[in-house]
Amino acid sequence: MHTNMLQELMKQEHGCHGGEGFIHVFRAFSRQGSPVQVDFIDFVIIPTGATIGRHRHGDNREWYVIINGHCEMLFGNQRVPVKPWDVLVNPPSGEHALYNNSGQDVTLVVFQVSKDGDSEH
C-alpha cells in the first residue's frame, strides 16, 4: 500500500505571517547547528482561499518554487500571477505575500539563503 509520507509529516500552520486560513508545511531542513547559509527548506501546501501574509525578512533571499497550482505572489505593491515551475526570488528586505485564490491547492518549496551566514525567519 502506497502512502504519501510527506503529507503525514506536514503540520498545519494557521495565519502564516498574518495570512488567512491554514497551510500545511514540512520543514525538511533547518540551519540550526549547521555551517551552511541555507536557513531552511520547507515543503508547503496552500489550500484554496489560504494565504501567506504580507511580510518581509532581513538581509536574505527567500525562494519560492511553485510545483503545482496557480496563485498570485505580491512583490512590494505588485501582484504577479504564478504557475507550476515558476521560481520567485524575494530580494533582501523585499515585502512579499502569496494568495491562493484558485480552485485548487498550491504546492511549493520555500527556501531561504542568508547573506554572510546571518539567519532570520
Automatic annotation (TrEMBL):
Q: Which Pfam families match?
A: Cupin_2
Can the keyword Transport be found in this entry's annotation?
Answer: no
Give the encoding gene's name: gacJ
Q: What's in the keyword line of the UniProt record? A: Metal-binding
Which ranges carry the Cupin type-2 domain?
43-110
Q: What is this protein called?
A: Cupin domain protein
An example of a GO molecular function for this protein is:
metal ion binding
**Keyword Nucleotidyltransferase listed:** no
* Gene3D superfamilies xref list: Jelly Rolls
Q: Which SUPFAM superfamilies match?
A: RmlC-like cupins
Q: What organism is listed for this UniProt entry?
A: Stigmatella aurantiaca (strain DW4/3-1)
Top-level taxon of origin: Bacteria
